[in-house]
UniProtKB/TrEMBL annotation:
Organism: Flagellimonas meridianipacifica
Sequence ranges assigned to domain HTH cro/C1-type in this UniProt record: 23-54
InterPro entries: Cro/C1-type_HTH (IPR001387), Lambda_DNA-bd_dom_sf (IPR010982)
Pfam families xref list: HTH_19
Transmembrane parts of this sequence: none
Name of this protein: Helix-turn-helix protein
Length: 95
């Protein structure tokens, strides 16, 4: 079986890069090393490095574990919570 690769346009790569930078800054503000965060998140340092670079190929569970270690799980829960467009579509269907 040949899995299909997801195509991510360059403008969306920027979103991941910004997310990675935000994670890196959060780690540094807490004065945590990459070794401490990766160990607590149950990932290797290479994976943390990829997360901090905004690699979209890293599993979302690994991103979540890093958020958890940084006490940012509430931020993670906010992803896609405000589906304004979806609600508008739903409202149109109700008319």
């Amino acid at each position: 079986m040949n899995p299909k690769k997801a195509i991510l346009l360059p403008k969306y790569h920027k979103i991941f890069e910004q997310l990675g930078e935000n994670i890196k800054l959060a780690r540094k503000r807490r004065k945590l090393t990459t070794e401490q965060v990766s160990e607590r998140a149950g990932i290797n340092r290479t994976t943390l490095y990829r997360i901090e670079k905004g690699d979209p190929k890293v599993a979302i569970g690994s991103y979540f574990n890093v958020f958890r270690v940084l006490n940012l799980e509430e931020d993670f829960k906010k992803l896609a919570v405000d589906d304004e467009f979806g609600r508008k579509l739903q409202d149109l269907d109700l008319l």
